[in-house]
Each structure stands twice: as C-alpha cells, then as structure tokens.
Amino acid sequence: MNSVDKNAEGDYFISIRHQNYILKIAGNNNLHGVAPGTVLWRLGGKGNEFLDGELADISRPHHVRHVRTTATETVFTVFNNHFQARQGDRRISNGQIIVLNNETKSLTSTQKFYNPEGWFSLAMGSMQALANGNMLIGWGTTPQFSEFSKDGKLLYHAHVDQYDRSLTNELANMQNYRIQKFDWVAHPTTDPKVVSYSRRCGRLEAPAPLVAYASWNGATSVKHWRFSTSGGSKEGPWKSAGTYKRTGFETKATLSEAGFARFVKIEALDKNKQLLGMAVSETFVPPEDTFYNVCDEHGCQALEWFNYVDHTGRASKCPTTIGGHGSNTLFVSVVVVGCLAFTAKKFSGKWRSF
What we know:
Blueprint: E1 3-6, E2 12-16, E3 21-25, E4 39-43, E5 61-69, E6 73-80, E7 94-101, E8 106-114, E9 126-129, E10 135-138, E11 144-148, E12 154-159, E13 193-197, E14 211-215, E15 224-230, E16 239-245, E17 250-254, E18 263-269, E19 275-282, E20 321-322, E21 325-326, H1 329-348
Antiparallel strand pairs: 1-2, 2-3, 3-4, 5-6, 6-7, 7-8, 9-10, 10-11, 11-12, 13-14, 14-17, 15-16, 15-18, 18-19, 20-21
C-alpha cells in the first residue's frame, strides 16, 4: 500500500503497488451497511471487478486521489507507473482520470496523460488535479515533472536531473516521490533590505540622482514600496519620496525629487497598501580616492559582491537635506556673517566683532 485517500462519506481509496490494483474500503459509520474495512470494489490486478477495467491497464499504481462520488459514478485520479504493460504494449507511465459506473460496475472512461518522452517509472510518481482543471504529474524514478491542460495539452515538461535510461540501467541520482503545486504565502521573520546610493552629495557638486534598491527575500505579499528621506537622522523627520510598484525580487527607485538625503526609509505594502515591514539605509556615496571611478550614477555594479552597508561612512560628510535639496549650511553662515561685518564697518567706520 502506498497511498490512501478518504471521501466525504468516510470510505477509503487505496493503491496497492505490488498487486496492481486500487481498492475502495468501507470506513467507520459507512452508508453501505457493511462492516468497516470491507472491500467495496477492486479495480485492476487479479480479481478486477469492473467491466472493461483492463482498459485502465494499471500496474504499480501510486497516489490515488478521490475526485467525486455520485449515485451513478465514481471519479478519481491515479499515477500509473505502467511497469507491467499488457503484451505488445510499450511501457509508458501515465496519469489517469478514471470514471467508474457504480450501477453497471463498468469503467466508463479513462483519460490518460503520458510521459512526453515516452519513459516509464520503476516506482514512485504522483498526479495532482489543480484548481483550474490542469494536471500536474511527477514521474517518480524518472526525474521529471509535467503539467497538462484539462484537455491533455502539454503545458511544460521539466527535468530535475539529467538522466537517460537508454544510456544506463542505473536509477537517477535525484528522484521525486511526489510533485505538488500550491499557492504559497510567506512573511519572513527578517526585515526588508534597502540600499540607497548617490554618486555625489548634492547641490554644490554636479547633480546626481538619489537611487534606492528595495527587496525582501521570501516575502510573497509585497505589492508596493513606499520611500521616504531624511536629511539628518535615521529617526526622521521623514519626507515622502513616492510609492513604487514592486518589480521582481529587487525594486529600483530613482528618487529624483528628493535631492540628496543621508537616510532613506522603505515601507513594504500589500495590495491594500497595508504596512508589512520597514527598513532604513544610510546613503552610500563612493569616495573619490577609492570607488568613485568604478561607480556610475546608479551604483557600483562593476564591483562584484560589493557591500554598500560596509562603506556608508562617506555619507556623513555630505551636506544635510533642507527642503528636499542639498545645501551647505557652513557656506551659508559664512556669507551671512561676512555681509553683517561689511555693513557694520561702512556705517560706523570701525570693525565690531560678532
């Protein structure tokens, strides 16, 4: 026995690999008036009870899964290794949707999905009916999996290991007992990551954009990134720099309206713009005596495995942000003092200290 599934009535569907058949077993409190554990029917192998049941040609079955039961029919899926094909038939593994007539105890139909390369699997294997009607099949000891549309069209076929049984009698190094596909939602316990970058400091130098890169490894619910900037402290106050739609693993944002800012904050937002997580980065500015010539307006991509976080000290030497633009407060104060001193001398005839 290698798989068991249970229907709403409490009966069990069981695949028996070495006997080449599928059983339906009465469960506790069953509706058939028989003792729990009673065999209700057998499909395939010795003792097959279904007319035309041999058309399913089941051998070494795996992963039987109940689909539905009505008064007149029973539907289930099964992976058929097809290890012992009927005489004259080629052994090709397949997944099947089997429909049985409960009243006439006959096989109404079977839809088969064959291995695209014509291989058979010695053991293992699976077949999953997806919500959209497609079928996902794992080919067991043949290290492959495939997805088919509900009408049998191959959508894709993938290898998980290089293997050609025509060249070797050995089993593949990698095999798959079951392949399954589900929607996956994850919220990491770690924080998002952000790197902010500007090649030059700001207004007193040639203009350079402030660029930020946001990512959150493993987070599946992030749809947007909200950016904010701060001139003097990683605690804020913060000025909005825009919201950007998430684009793949890493989202790049050119914060052109923010000017130079020493700190950049990101906030990860879901589809309803609800906050999921946040992070703050100190802006990296490449020093002219080291990295400047190998960096461009968007980063230091020429430096493989470059760690921006380890080199953010240069940002503290840049002017702080005032009103969203870089300005040198020392320069402004000197100009103001100079004007006051000149005015005082002109009207008083002598210097006064300020």
